[in-house]
Known about the structure:
28% of the residues lie in helices and 25% in strands. It has a seven-stranded parallel beta sheet, sandwiched between helices. Strands 14-13-15-16-17 form a five-stranded parallel beta sheet. The protein has helices at 18-34, 51-56, 75-89, 100-113, 226-236, 244-248, 279-282, 302-305, 314-329, and strands at residues 5-9, 11-12, 15-16, 38-44, 61-66, 93-97, 117-121, 123-126, 133-139, 144-148, 156-160, 177-180, 212-216, 239-242, 269-273, 290-295, 308-311. By secondary structure, it is an alpha/beta fold. The model has no long low-confidence stretch (mean pLDDT 95). The relative contact order is 0.11. It is built from nine helices and 17 strands. The chain binds flavin-adenine dinucleotide. Flavin-adenine dinucleotide binds next to helix 6, helix 7, strand 16 and helix 9.
Amino acid sequence: MSKDVFVFIEQRDNVLQKVGIELLGKARELADDLGQNVVAMLLGENIKGQAEVLIKHGADKVIYVEDPILKEYVTEPYAKAINEIIKENDPEIVIYGATSIGRDLAPRLAARIHTGLTADCTKLEIDPESKNLMMTRPAFGGNLMATILCEDHRPQMATVRPGVMQAIDTDNSRTGEIVEKKIDFVPEDMNVTIKDILKIESKKKDITEAKILVSGGRGIGGPEGFQPLEDLAKVLGAEISSSRAAVDAGWITKDHQVGQTGKTVRPEVYFAMGISGAIQHLAGMEESDLIIAVNKTEDAPIFEVADLGVVGDVNAIVPKLAEALKKAKE
Ligand code: FAD
């Protein structure tokens, strides 16, 4: 009988990635609805020390695998270890981050285990009647949301984009079980050679980590339109992000893009400046705590999700706003 909600936890250089902690928050909710447990799967070299953190963030049990072969993510050894854990434990649900690692790993496991996989989910819920997992994701270019079921196979598997689910706060009173799983790796499991690891150093903060985002769209008029936004962001201690239209026009790089094919963000404040509010953009920012929109078109869809909307010219309003905030700070 399948049971429990399993989460694949990502680590890089033995640092737990935020997405895994977010997924534990969602897994906790799903497991409570099912009356089952949350199990975190943690792989790496000398990784056991991180297991406690996962319990404090919602896991009832951590299954960890330590081996030098798992130091860096490589498909085959990771797929072998997770495959063995799943086959031994028969989970009801397994969730992964829709990151480059999760997107590589999850489909391989789906094929090995002979089950389905719903990629890039934005919502996961338990059907109160059937107790099946309802996996919702954008479909047809984001024009509709599709809810997908995996009724006949177990585990039910999904990948979820970073920033979509909410982590639960650290609870130091939580306790749980930490179990080591031994995997017999053989040299052939390492079917690639890592010659060098080149890291791209970014001076900018990842937009998914920002507390305040000032986002520019086509309405800012051109690449020079980002300068007033930068000035405003500086006063606010914010980061700059954008719509896809601004990226496609070559005004800003893709790592700033918010939305269905960009990043999902959940800042405390999101400024949408000259952004119409297309459904694909909203998919990446509508969970922000406070949305402030400036748009010259009164019925722009962005105003439907905005907590505060200003109808007006962004080029006139942004410098004035930056100036006023600067004065208020002095
Ligand atoms: P526009 O839609 O052109 O809107 C510009 C807005 O600025 C208008 O509302 C206008 O009234 C306002 N404006 C103009 N001048 C001023 C001014 N001077 N002052 C104030 N307001 C002004 N989009 C994303 O953003 N992210 C995605 O990840 C994404 N993924 C997509 C995936 C698919 C499969 C598809 C089909 C589309 C995707 N899109 C995405 C594109 C999306 O559909 C929109 O085309 C895009 O979001 C529009 O960007 P925008 O709001 O900046 O531009």
